[in-house]
Amino acid sequence: MQMPAPDQAVLDRRDDICAALKKLVPAACVIDSRESMRAFDSDGLSAYRQLPLAVVLPETVEQIAAVMKWCHQQGVKIVPRGAGTSLSGGALPLEDAVLLGLGKFNRILEIDYDNRCVVAQPGVTNLAITHAVQADGFYYAPDPSSQIACSVGGNVAENSGGVHCLKYGLTTNNLLGVEIVTMDGEILRLGGKHLDAGDYDLLGVMTGSEGLLGVVSQVTLRILQKPATARALLVGFEDTGDAGTAVGDIIAAGIIPAGMEMMDGLAIQAAEDFANAGYPREAAALLIIELDGPQIEVDALIERVEGVVRAAGASSVRVSQSEEERNLFWAGRKSAFPAVGRISPDYLCMDGTIPRRRLPDMMRRMASLSQKYGLRVANVFHAGDGNLHPLILFDANQPGELERAEEFGADILRGCVEMGGVLTGEHGVGVEKRDLMTIQFTEDDLKQQQRLKCAFDPGHLLNPGKVFPHLHRCAELGRLHVHKGKLPHPDLPRF
User: Fold this and answer.
1) Domains of the chain, CATH where assigned
2) Who's near 73: CB < 8 A, 6+ residues apart?
3) Closest by CA position to 235, among listed 166, 273, 291
4) What is the pLDDT of residue 494?
5) CB 15 within 8 A of CB 60
6) What is the b/e burial string over 460-471, where b = at least 16 CB atoms within 10 angstroms of the residue's CB?
7) What is the rounded average pLDDT of the residues 384-395?
8) Are 155 and 142 in contact (CB under 8 A)?
9) Partner of 140 for a Cys bridge, out of 129, 154, 252, 290, CB 3.0 to 4.6 A?
10) Which of 152-188 are b and which e, b meaning 16 or more Cβ less than 10 Å from the residue's Cβ?
């Protein structure tokens, strides 16, 4: 993985840059010692680490704007960071860039039940939104496995989902408005407490933009009323292909569960050892299917789902009989990632999406690739929307295993595209999938995406080296005037 070469002129100015930053924010909000910055040297993709130029932790929106305006004027790069839970390297620091951390923006500003929304700062954790409103019978639907730690600003940047995204959507379906700070320090507000603003869908542009267009400083999120009844089924299968078939059959029957997750045998064993959730250890695959709504509807749907999964070859079916038991079913799934960490020194968590009907094919492809690379894989899927999260197990202390794991993951993602899917579902592109973008997008596609970036950040100062496999100067894309052959920003790297 090649990153842009650091700008030596910026590195030489480091002391002056840090001194200037300490005038824009309280001095205690600037971290510039090498030891202290080690806490920020990676995000969730911890295989790659690098110290930033400096870390700035602003406390107000005005401070964010001041820092970004100054960096824009001085040609200093900025890498935005939320909670640092990104699994694609989206918040990986750069040696010549200021890391802008939003951890101090951790307050819920308003709860508006009349308009069914919450206004929050970007550093508020995902789960804190639900905790703030659950006593009044409401919740926030997107629920990534990292929801206890991930921030809502990061959710917007990555368009995060979770186990309930099948019925209730990803972040983009539950985001009403954002406040952003542009690279030149302008504060913009998009959307609000209303649906579907007119003109250009700039809110949609910002959602999933991975910190390349601006820094999210405030979010307005939709909250939902808690359903009257929610029950979950644990469905075991002796064959992973049968489980994949059952997923498609349930959707084809016109049933839209609140969530439908799939785990293979290795993931089942690890999760059960960790959470004691009552998973069928003998099963080769497990579906967790949640149904919600009025009780009479849920009871009827359970009966229909049981019929569908048994027809598909289910070997066991267990229905939750209490709220505690339902939560226990999900506890095993939500703990799958840390559970797998107990059976392997290291793992790579991949993220790709395929059509649901291709799930059996992908399971066979995964088994074949596991043999090819000599590495185990534990599969944990958002099966209902075809979002795969294979966990490739390896030992970074063994020479060559990290590289084999990365090639394994790249082959999985190539398979996703070949099967009619896409490179990512909810983890973003970051640096992990950057160099695979050309297998999904043409050169013209990528140029058009970069033109959009140029409209917001012509100097490519925001989170450079992420998403795009190579950089074009904005002038090359026809967006800037070239006078007498002299290009603006001649120092921009190409890599």
Assistant:
1) 8-101 (3.30.43.10), 108-225 (3.30.465.10), 229-337 (3.30.70.2190), 344-437 (3.30.70.2740)
2) none
3) 291
4) 46
5) no
6) bbbbbbbbbbeb
7) 94
8) yes
9) 129
10) bbbbbbbbbbbbbbbbbbbbbebbbbbbbbbbbbebe
For 116, the token pair is 């069914």
Query: To 5 degrees, how large is the angle CA 122–CA 82–CA 445?
Result: 95
Contacts of 401 (CB under 8 A, 6+ apart): 375, 394, 395
Do the Cβ atoms of 72 and 114 come closer than 8 Å?
Answer: no
Q: Residues near 390 by Cβ (< 8 Å), separated by ≥ 6?
A: 349, 350, 366, 377, 378, 379, 380, 409, 412
For residue 302 the two structure tokens come to 């359970």
pLDDT, tens digit (0-9, with 9 covering 90-100), for 211-239:
999 999 999 999 999 999 999 999 999 99
Helix (H) or strand (E) holding 327: helix 323-334
| Nearest-angstrom CA–CA distance, 248 and 446 | 33
Q: Residues 102, 60: contact at Cβ < 8 Å?
A: no
Calpha distance 460→7 (Å, rounded)? 13
| 474: confidence class by pLDDT, cuts 50, 70, 90 | confident
H or E element at residue 215: strand 215-222
pLDDT tens profile 250-285: 999 999 999 999 999 999 999 999 999 999 999 999
Matching residue, tokens 């967006």? 479
Q: Confirm if 52 and 99 have CB atoms less than 8 A apart.
A: yes
User: Could you give the CA distance from residue 129 to residue 420 in angstroms, rounded to a whole number?
Assistant: 35
The structure tokens listed for 370 are: 């596991």
Can you tell me the distance from the alpha carbon of 492 to that of 450, in angstroms, rounded to the nearest whole number?
14
For the whole model, what pTM was predicted?
0.91
pLDDT tier at 4, thresholds 50, 70, 90: confident
Helix%, strand%, coil% for the chain, nearest 5: 40, 20, 40
User: Within 13 Å and on the Cβ side, how many CA atoms surround 399?
Assistant: 0
Report the C-alpha gap between 384 and 39 in whole angstroms.
36
Tokens, residue 61: 């929106």
